[in-house]
Amino acid sequence: MDLPLLPTSVIGSYAWPAWLHVALWAAQRGELGPEDMRETQDDAVDMALRDQEDAGVDIVSDGEMRRAGFFTAAFYGFLTGLRELPPQRRIGVAGHDQRESYEAVEPITAPNGLGLLVEYEYVRQRTTRPIKMPCPGPFTLAGRIKPGAAYRTRWDVAEALVPIINAELKALAAAGCTFIQIDEPSIAVRPDAPRAFVELFNATVAGVDARIGLHLCFGNYVGRPTARRTYRPLFPHILEAHADQYALEFANRELAEIDLWREFPSEKELAAGLVDVKNYYIETPEDVAERIRVALRYVAPEKLTIVPDCGFSQTARWAAHAKLKAMVEGARMVRRELAG
After folding, report:
1. Is 129 exposed, middle or buried (0-12, 13-18, 19+ CB in 10 A)?
2. Is beta strand 80-85 parallel, antiparallel or unpaired with respect to 101-109?
3. From the CB of residue 144, how many other CB atoms can be counted at a distance below 10 Å?
4. Which fold has domain 18-69+111-338?
5. How far is Cα 42 from Cα 67, in angstroms, rounded to an integer?
6. Where do the TM regions start and end (predicted)?
7. Are 307 and 12 contacting, i.e. CB atoms less than 8 angstroms apart?
8. What angle do CA 72, 124, 33 make, to 5 degrees?
9. What are the distances in angstroms from CA 19 to CA 26, 317, 339?
């Protein structure tokens, strides 16, 4: 990739426009056909790219605009062998117990892949900027699947998903995708077996000819984390993962634990989350620049990428756009300082 020093990027998802919510509700009611949804989601990807490019982001994504729910064939919709379960709670404050979940009733397969190739083929035609393709990792994807009669544990479900995801990643690389990010927030949420996770991750990306990123966060459903927010239990084992870049959240934790990068030195790149997606305070470019200067005490500038803490799917679009613009301008400020 032809990138500047301190390149900027996104984690993956972008804020939905109001009309996409309306379209998804209409789809749930059976009011839209498949071509209606395709056109709507194409337009949503174009919008997400336009906002990122307008802000000046160096490495863009499609905003994950096609990943909404089972009726739009998101990841679980591509998997066979699952029975959907009713949510544990339907009323009240939003939480994970109101989300969809599944039970494995037979061995899981994905005869038509996971849909990432379609996403990539579209976004590559709509931008000239470097593209990052995010994909959920097997342990996180297994989190909403009860083992049922087909498997014994969540780890067994995750291992069954490894060849499915690996095939998808290889197809992306064969199509020309050069940067793939595996999203595994569940490992940061449940950091009790870092060595086992590294083995799972390395099997997932084995033989994939692309730059690999690993995104570890503490959850962002309705803007809330779901765990004790510390990466320390993962170190140093996590650095054995076959990843070129680690995307970690720091902004909403006041840059806590960024010193881990010096305590456990490596040649890996760090995509440091320096914009808080869980706060409606809009950072100024100066705020972001100051965070970057702190990060540079621990990370060499050629190894540092500037990103938000997490995706923007739980953030209003006006705030997401403003935060991206501040992030990019803050990075430019420090870039100019480093250039003298």
Report:
1. middle
2. antiparallel
3. 17
4. TIM Barrel (3.20.20)
5. 12
6. none
7. no
8. 25
9. 10, 12, 43
Measure the CA–CA gap between 161 and 113, rounded to whole angstroms: 11
Contact yes or no for 275/284 (Cβ under 8 A): no
Q: Where are the domains of the chain?
A: 18-69+111-338
Residue 72 near residue 41 (C-beta atoms within 8 A):
yes
pLDDT one-digit tens code per residue, 223-241: 888 888 999 999 999 999 9
Q: What is the DSSP string of 180-226?
A: EEEE-HHHHHSTT-HHHHHHHHHHHHTT--SEEEEEE-S--BTTB--
Q: Which two tokens stand for residue 75?
A: 């990841």
Cα gap 285→308, rounded to integer Å: 13
Q: Which residues contact 300 (CB under 8 A, 6 or more apart)?
A: none
Q: How far is CA 95 from CA 143, 215, 238, 312, in A?
A: 15, 22, 29, 18
- Provide the β-strand partners of residue 215: 183, 247
